[in-house]
Amino acid sequence: MLTYYMQLAWLSVKRTPIISSLMIVTLAVGVAVSMTMVTLQHVMSANGLAEQNDRVYALQLNNGSKNQGDDGGLKNGMADLLSYRTARALLASHAAPHVVAMHRWAAAVSLADNSIKPTKEMVRVTSRDFFALFGVPFIYGKVWDKQADDEARYQVVIDRTMNQHLFNGENSVGRDVQLNGRPYQVVGVVEDFAPNPSVQDLTQGAFAGNANIYLPFGLHRALQMLPNGNMRYSSSKDADTSASTEALTPEQQYERILQERFIWLQIWVELPDEQTKANFVTFLKSYFDEQYNNGFYERDFDYALSSPSEWLALNDVVSNDTRVMTLMALTFLLVCIINSIALLLAKLLRQSSEAGVRRALGASRSAIFSQNLIESGLIGLLGGVLGIGLSQLGLSFVRMLVSTEEARVVYSDGFTITLTVLLAIIASILAGCYPAWRISQTSLAQALKSQ
Amino acid sequence: MFEFGPILRTLWRNKIGASLIILQSALTLAIVANATFVLQQRLQLINQPTGIDEQHLFTIDVKPLGQGLFSVGEIQRDTLELRQITGVVDASYISDKPLSGSYSQSNRNAQDDDTTFTISLNQLTTDPHGLHTLGVALEQGRFFNDSDMVRDLKEGKVVVISRGVADAAFGEGVNPIGQQITTFGLPPTGKHKQALKDSQLFTVVGVAADANITSVASVNDGVIFLPFYQPDKSVTYLIRCQPSQCNQLMLAVPQKLKQLDNHRIITGVSTVMSNKDELLRADHTMVVMMMAAIVLVSSITGLGVIGLTLIWVNRRRWQIGVRRALGATRMGIVRYFLMENLLVTSIGLCFGVILTLGLNQLLVEYYQMQALPLSYLLLGMACVWLLGLSAAFVPALRTTTISPAVATRSI
């Protein structure tokens, strides 16, 4: 029976090629456009640290200047960066099981034997807790020693991708990598850690915070490292006149950056339970008050601890523009579905005399209904399949428009493909159900009379 | 004449079919009106003049090999030589690349006698040629001369501020020339005098016209120009070229710099326009997407109306034949179908106004968009109306081929 109905449906589609293909294209375009936007939003709203969501927190402190105006860039009313001095105090404390201070840096990467072409790579300069806190497992070796976070040790941890690139994936522990022409010893190789969006560091855009190379936190003075990213002076003291800069050597000038309220570091802490959290806040308060009293901080004590999902929301990773486009796309899908229903209804009603003959020959209403539903289902199916294809086209179009970092991740995954298929089926059933029901309700006498 | 009665009765008999089309026109209006408005706003932002000669500017980064810093002599020699190249209008040393979104900004609360106000500005370090290279006009006073230039800001005496900063710091209508100001744009007046007594003060010698130098939209009061050579590991030169000379100069300038001193790395030759495009990427995306939305929804609705009218015409062939046989003219029949379409679209637009304002309310409330002006609503209505009419026109014309004899053939 089913195959017979399929045959009938196919015949009917063929009999009205223009109207049928119009319906198929309408559904396909609707599904494609909405799926393109839903995929974009889905990619943007992913949380790569969902598993750590109730354990790790991004830290903010009210470390602005007392007469600073709000330039609109503040989140929770506070800057999203902290000073080196604060980072040092937190690293030295035992207030939380794991504390990570970090910033982005860039370096030219090469090997001593010149076997690879030097490339400029993003480097994460961080404290050793980074790997434990974010749950990045080691493949070879282990993290650098505690001392490497405090004093200059030319050591490096690389990830699987970088190890593949530099050493063909061999166990490279003990070998040297050149960063800006200086050798660093590989102490460990970790699995790739590249959540998209890069929730651990959103300061340079939602997808620009991942790195393949990790350097210890003790190298700042030796290299006079400055972040590849934002650095702000947030004190009310006049930066250019508080010290006589002409008399300072470069070392002394750099020391000023480390000791005064230049803010440029991100801090994450691991607080597995409420008790630890409470203890940490107590520590934070006493540290802040102490620094307030000696004049380092100028504003009242305030802090914020944001879980990865809160941090993503706070940083507007899914932009309003994306949301507006998604809303428009879904409205557009509605237009397409309505359009298909109208066309299908008009088309099927034209065939009502045919249905009347079938009814007169003894077909039940439900038989008429299922026959017509199969016809609209066929159109929906064709539209859906075409829609999936078109949505891939739409995505490659979107990739041309967005930034390179974003373009790397805007691809449909299992979830969005499944959603597309479901959407296509639902759209076609919605579009087909009413017309099929309507035609099965045709009164027998009337249908025959019009013959 | 307009056969409203028969049309309404026909539509009433086909309630569901008609209401689907009504709903579709309504939604189409909602999308078209809102998308046009968002599109227009973004285009305005993109086309907004920045006030600098953005079309003819490019920057180049120079870095000495090794760990050394740049010397003032080196910068002066380079800029002097660059200005000699044919096709170069002017060249200067500059601390931040124009329209790159990277800049140094300060926001300070200042206190006048009884009011508190925020001054927010960009600090831009440049040489005497800076303003002319950017293509920004000087409104008052003078720009820097060679004797103003210092190696250390501590020795600096003078600054130039943009009109916006002058108005914010000293009040509109006050002559800023000769006034004192800090690098954060604070004047030492009122209660403020005391707080700023230890700060370094500069004398304002000139006022530049307002221009968006560092970012595309004006996000602050303006710019303060500082006359000093920042000791750094790399410098950026800004080059302004004569029309259509940019491409050639982007090759000639690096060569010249290499020729002057080969022991340095020359990178990052980029036009200010490319920086601007990068800054406005999200807006460009929005423009393309909104345009796509308008085109797609119009074509789907247009094609839908064509298809439906086609079906309706075919279903009523016999009826048309009878009417023709009873003396209706061809044009009369065409008019009937057009009127039918007009009526349906008009009812749709009435609902559409509600949907459009509803959608706009949603955008305003949740996504920080702006309220839709009435003109866009009217424009959208006109578009959808025209769309419906022109889509119905072709199938309606097909009725002219139906001969009165059709009426005799059936049954």
From TrEMBL, chain A:
Residues 20-228 form the MacB-like periplasmic core domain. It is found in: Cell membrane. Keywords: Cell membrane, Membrane, Transmembrane, Transmembrane helix. The chain crosses the membrane at residues 21-40, 324-349, 378-402, 414-437. InterPro entries: ABC3_permease_C (IPR003838), MacB_PCD (IPR025857), Macrolide_Exporter_MacB (IPR050250). It is a multi-pass membrane protein. Residues 327-443 form the ABC3 transporter permease C-terminal domain. Pfam families: FtsX, MacB_PCD. This is ABC transporter permease. It comes from Shewanella electrica.
From TrEMBL, chain B:
It is a multi-pass membrane protein. Keywords: Cell membrane, Membrane, Transmembrane, Transmembrane helix. The keyword Ion transport does not apply. Coiled coil: none annotated. Pfam families: FtsX, MacB_PCD. The chain crosses the membrane at residues 286-313, 333-354, 374-394. It comes from the Bacteria. Residues 292-404 form the ABC3 transporter permease C-terminal domain. It is found in: Cell membrane. Belongs to the ABC-4 integral membrane protein family. This is ABC transporter permease. It comes from Shewanella electrica.
